[in-house]
Specification:
The chain is of the alpha+beta class. It is built from five helices and four strands, in the order αααβαββαβ. InterPro entries: AsnC-type_HTH_dom, Dimeric_a/b-barrel, Tscrpt_reg_AsnC-like, Tscrpt_reg_AsnC/Lrp_C, Tscrpt_reg_HTH_AsnC-type_CS, WH-like_DNA-bd_sf, WH_DNA-bd_sf.
């Protein structure tokens, strides 16, 4: 099945997805107990969800401050050209860029960056500004952190 193709998911699939988002390290045996299936049936469903592109990978969540990043900011970039190759090349070499979204409106990209300090943020935004006009918004706090994805109704 092609990636991102619409699959018909049942409530057991939804439960598997929810549990794996809660704890991606859970074993198939534990997952099977949670969703009331055999381990082999659960493993087959996880394989089907993965092969179908619903589950795209597994990762951990880390505290950015614990890794030395005390500043989070969103940078809006008004990119003056339709040739996005320089943008892709620049951000590929910037580990501080943790998200980038091509958007509609006056800006072409919204970029989420992590910085060690305000001076570091100035360095990062300076590099991004070589591509076009930028507007930077520093995050005070995040009252709604990243959420798990639930099925669309």
């Amino acid at each position: 099945m092609p990636l991102n193709a619409q699959q018909t998911l049942d409530t057991t699939d939804h439960d598997i997805i929810a549990e794996l988002q809660r704890d991606g390290r859970t074993s198939i045996a534990q997952l099977a107990r949670v969703v009331n299936l055999s381990a082999s049936a659960t493993a087959e469903r996880v394989r089907r969800l993965t092969d179908g592109g619903v589950i795209t990978g597994y990762s951990i969540t880390v505290d950015a401050e614990a890794l030395g990043y005390t500043v989070t900011a969103f940078v809006r970039l008004a990119y003056p050209s339709g040739n996005y190759r320089p943008f892709h090349d620049l951000v590929a070499d910037m580990p501080e860029v943790i998200e980038a979204h091509h958007v509609t409106g006056a800006d072409c990209f919204i970029i989420k960056v992590l910085a060690r300090s305000m001076r570091d943020l100035e360095r990062i935004t300076g590099r991004l500004a070589t591509l076009g006009g930028i507007t930077t918004n520093v995050v005070y706090s995040s009252p709604v952190p990243a959420r798990h994805i639930t099925p669309a109704e």
